[in-house]
Design a protein that fits this description.
By secondary structure, the protein is mainly α. Helices cover 79% and strands 0% of the residues. It is built from 8 helices and no strands. Helix 1 packs antiparallel against helix 7 and helix 7 packs antiparallel against helix 8. The N and C termini lie far apart (51 Å). The mean pLDDT is 88.
Length: 205
Amino acid sequence: MTMSADQVLHFANFSTLFVCLVLKFPQIFALISAKSSRGISLKSLLLELTGYIVVLSYQSYYEYPLSAYLEYPILIAQDAILLLLVFYYNGNLSHCLLPAVLFVAVWPLITFQKWIIDLAMSLCTFISAASKFAQLQCLWETRDAGQVSALTWGMAIYTSLARIFTTLMTTGDFQVLARFLIMLLLNGWVTATIVYYRRAGIKQE
């Protein structure tokens, strides 16, 4: 019995939502267990959160199907928790206030005018790519995976693949599609780098 295109689309949407419900959990648990944020790039998290906010705002502004972006509020909440943990374990919890105020203040302005949201979305791919490179840079500099979760990044590969498929099947939006293609490549690169340094660390031990 073969699945219809609609059934495959529904599976891709709901499986992506399910994965995103727990996407950051391995990373959150790794930080709490180790009581350390070693290896986690704060810059990467801030850029990633910005990218999530822009995509959520863009797709809701243009009234995309809810199933196409329902995971973003979940990811934003999980990134906010991760940021709090990183600030806390770095001993700079009070420093999280400024980013929080900026995000809350700027978020509504993104959809104030059509040209603003379009510009923000056109820059979003660069913002999201920069977040991945920031994490890669942190790994390259320390040559240590630290508390970075390969499982979280591995699951991000699946969500990128699934969203490439759902975008092709629904809106075909080139900006959104290009973003997911680039994210797929970079998520794979980060995952491979984490695994490499983790294996290198085991060999040294």
